[in-house]
Design goal:
Blueprint: H1 3-20, H2 25-32, H3 36-43, H4 51-61, H5 65-69
Helix pairs in contact: 2-3
Length: about 70
């Protein structure tokens, strides 16, 4: 699996988990102290993230990190 595919999988999973909690991109961005556009780019697979950011997103969405990285 290449990096681009992993970013897309990650982004889709972030969106799915965000919607499960009923959060808007703006609400998630506020929780994470990020700009809403940054969340949008993550969800569309256009933004690389660090392991620290991955962990912060997982915590905010109340899931384990691996959930956000697995293909469904």
């Amino acid at each position: 699996m290449n990096n681009r595919n992993l970013l897309k999988i990650f982004g889709v999973n972030v969106k799915i988990e965000r919607l499960k909690l009923g959060y808007t991109q703006e609400q998630l961005a506020e929780i994470l102290n990020m700009h809403e556009k940054h969340i949008s780019k993550i969800e569309t697979g256009k933004q690389n993230v660090t392991l620290k950011t991955l962990s912060q997103i997982a915590n905010a969405l109340r899931v384990q990190e691996y959930i956000l990285l697995q293909e469904k």
